[in-house]
Design a protein that fits this description.
Actin, Chain A, domain 4; 41% helix; 10 helices; 5-stranded mixed sheet; Nucleotidyltransferase, domain 5
C-alpha cells in the first residue's frame, strides 16, 4: 500500500530505523499481534509475557517508549534484549561459551555488529544504515542519472533482483531489469533499463559504511577473542545479509576471515527472542526487565 493510497488513507511504518516512529500505531500493532496469537492458542483472557528486541544504540527515551507501548498493549511481563544478542542466539551461535562470536545483523533500519562471549556483549556498534538506506541509494541514483522518479518499493525490487555487493559476483543470469517511473522533466511515465553494474554502483556507499562498522568492531575486539574469530568466523543475519556477494566482500575486507550467512537469516532475531522466552532462566543474563 505504500505510495499507492488515496488521500483518505495514510500508509506509514510504526517503526523506522529500529525505533518507534509512531507511538499510537505501534501500540495498536502490538495489540493486534497479541490478539492474533491469543486467538490461535485459545487463550484470549491471558495477558502474555513479552520480549522485545531493541537496537544496541537505543537511547533511554526510545527504550522508555518501547516499554510503554508494551505495557499499554497488555503485556503481563515485559523484557528487552539487544537485537544482536537475539540474532546470535537465533543463528545458533554458542553464546554461553567463553569464546568470541561475531554477529552482523543487517536489518531494514539498522546494521549492528557485536562481539559476544559468555552471554554478554563484549563490544557492539550500531549504525542506522540497512536495507532502507540501500533502497534510498537506488532511488537517488536513478533520479540523478536518468531523471526518473521511482518509489522505495520499486527500488527494493531492483535490489532483490539484480543487486550485488561485488560486480563480479553473479548469482543468477539476470543482469538487467526494466524500471518504470515518472520522468522528472516531462512528468510522464517512462521506462529505462538498469544494469547490475549500475545497481552495484548505487549501493557502494551504504555497503562501505557496513564494512567500516565491521572493521571498527574488529579493532575493538580483545586479542584473545580475536583469535577465536579466525576459526569461528563471522556470522551474518537479517535481510541485508542476503545481498549477493556481501559475505565475500566482508571476508575480503577483513583479511580473509570466514564469513557465513546464518540459516534462515530473516527470522534469526525472532527465533532467538522466542528461544530466550522459552528458556528464560538459562538466558536471564541476556535480558533486562
Amino acid at each position: 500500500m505504500l505510495g499507492k493510497t488515496p488521500e483518505n488513507i495514510i500508509a506509514c511504518r510504526p517503526l523506522r530505523d529500529g525505533v518507534i516512529a509512531d507511538f499510537e500505531l505501534t501500540e495498536a500493532m502490538l495489540r493486534h499481534f497479541i490478539k492474533q496469537v491469543q486467538a490461535d492458542r485459545g487463550a484470549t483472557l491471558v495477558r502474555p509475557r513479552m520480549i522485545i528486541c531493541v537496537p544496541s544504540g537505543i537511547t533511554p527515551v526510545e527504550k522508555r517508549a518501547v516499554e510503554d507501548s508494551a505495557r499499554q498493549a497488555g503485556a503481563r511481563e515485559f523484557y528487552t534484549i539487544l537485537q544482536p544478542m537475539a540474532a546470535a542466539i537465533g543463528a545458533g551461535l554458542p553464546v554461553q561459551e567463553p569464546t568470541g562470536n561475531m554477529i552482523i545483523d543487517i536489518g531494514g533500519g539498522t546494521t549492528q555488529v557485536a562481539i559476544i562471549s559468555l552471554k554478554s556483549v563484549v563490544f557492539c556498534r550500531s549504525v542506522r544504515i540497512g536495507g532502507d538506506e540501500m533502497d534510498k541509494a537506488i532511488v537517488q541514483y536513478v533520479k540523478k542519472k536518468y531523471s526518473l522518479l521511482i518509489g522505495e518499493r520499486t527500488a527494493e525490487t531492483i535490489k532483490i533482483e539484480i543487486g550485488s555487493a561485488l560486480i563480479e559476483h553473479q548469482d543468477s543470469s539476470v543482469v538487467e531489469v526494466l524500471v518504470k517511473g515518472r520522468d522528472m522533466v516531462t512528468g510522464v511515465p517512462k521506462t529505462i533499463t538498469l544494469t547490475r553494474a549500475e545497481v552495484n554502483e548505487a549501493l557502494l556507499e551504504p555497503i562501505a559504511c557496513i564494512v567500516d562498522v565491521v572493521k571498527v568492531a574488529l579493532e575493538n575486539t580483545p586479542p584473545e577473542l580475536s583469535s577465536d574469530l579466525v576459526t569461528q568466523g563471522i556470522t551474518m543475519a537479517g535481510g541485508g545479509s542476503l545481498l549477493p556477494g556481501l559475505a565475500q566482500l566482508i571476508s575480503k575486507e577483513t583479511g580473509g576471515l570466514p564469513v557465513k550467512v546464518a540459516k534462515d537469516p530473516l527470522f534469526c532475531v525472532a527465533n532467538g527472542a522466542g528461544k530466550v522466552l522459552e528458556e528464560l532462566d538459562a538466558f536471564r543474563d541476556t535480558v533486562t526487565d
